[in-house]
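#struct-queue
[09:14] JT: dropping the first one here, sequence first, then the structure tokens:
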Amino acid sequence: MNNVNPAPLTASVVFRLGTLGSVVTARFTTALAELGLKPKHVGVLVALDSGAPPSQQELARTMAVAPSLVVALADHLEQVGAVDRVRDPADRRRQVLALTDTGRSLLAECTALAHGLDEELTASLTAPDREALRRTLGVLGVEAGLPTGD
């Protein structure tokens, strides 16, 4: 093993991103609560907005969560009018989630909240630094299999 003293844990990218992620998640969660949502609800809305309407099972796989969680999330989103459950015409046993106009509006509100928090979080950065951060996080996100939105 190397005897050179490494930088402290608090200087690692993993520690900094993890800690900052916790802070940002808490702030986003608080902002979403005003809309009656949690971050995983927003994840469902984003997934539905990004492509073909998936079944609840497919959505659970995509989000890497238990199918029962997707059912609970969809129940809430259906109650607020953000999604409809529709039987798949090709397979009547399968329920497909469809984003409603209300769901699209709610997603737009979530997007505005996120961009507002982005502005607060990056206020001390220069415009080129903000853009570099956005690009770098995009590269790391792609490598982790996350949607980029670009």
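[09:21] JT: and here's the second one, same format:
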Amino acid sequence: MAKYTTLEQIDLPAVADSYGLDDPRLAPLAGGAANSSFRLSTASAEFVLTILDNHDTASAESLAAHTQALFLLGVPTSAVVPATDGSLITHFDGRPVILKVWTEGRVEQPLPVKLLPEAGRILAQLHALSTQSPGLTDIPVGTRRLSADHEALIPELPDREFAAWLTDRLNRIHRAEATNHRPRTVTHGDLFDDNVIVRTDGSLTVLDWETISLDDPLLDLGMAAVGLAQENGELAPERVKALVAGYEQIAPLSEEDVAALPGEIIHAALIIAFHRYYRHHVRFPDPSKATYHLEMIRFVESVEGAFRCLADGAGQGRGDSQPSLGGMRG
């Protein structure tokens, strides 16, 4: 597990020298599952200083380069501040460091429904970027998915009932995706509300590009539905409808995409369920989070139920009972 950096451990004069800052002041920031972040203030500007506790130099350089490339391409995210020597990362006590411009605003959980269309538009804007754009030519492929090694672990999970449920649902997804020929695009992979800043003018800024990859845009939209379209632990039809409506303003979905989206929402939930179980039961056992993964079982059931009801209503008289998003477009 990452060894987090505390405020007292930071050599502030060294940081100031690396970035050419006058009289900086630090305050810790809450949140962050893998890294240590601080608000850094000077007389003239505000920044976020992040000690990338969970990165080596290569991965930190990649994260910084991708973040800066996205900012320069117009994606609403925080700009990376180069050091005085022009590098996008520095080092503190052997750990990589990144400095970004502070975004004035707040995290709202849940993100208000009225802001979900903008979140959808940002995701569609991201998916429309050329993978040949400067800074985006070396993005990894499919890293948000469960790897073959991950899936090989599932039958041996101590909770055999959960393992059987996960295996069954993943097999269904794999069969459905066997004929998927959608092009891979730049994806965020973790568009949850704690990675979205609501700025003072009401616009959105997206943070945390650690799971950026080239992948199916519908899986990324499905992951955003898991992160932004829940209400009381279940899929909220009006929330996913608002998210998709914003997305389609930039990237209209085909009928085939519409039919596939419920499955990709479920796929995203299965990925989250596995990682929650594996982290809190196997890698870093935490009794306080022993049932955290079960939230995704309930969510998956709500997705299946919501779309089944929609499909039943849409298919009356023609025997069509397949899940569909069609009823959410009206």
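[09:30] RK: nice, looked through the second one.
[09:31] RK: The CA atoms of residues 266 and 300 lie 6 Å apart.
[09:31] JT: good to know. Residues 255-283 form the longest helix (29 residues).
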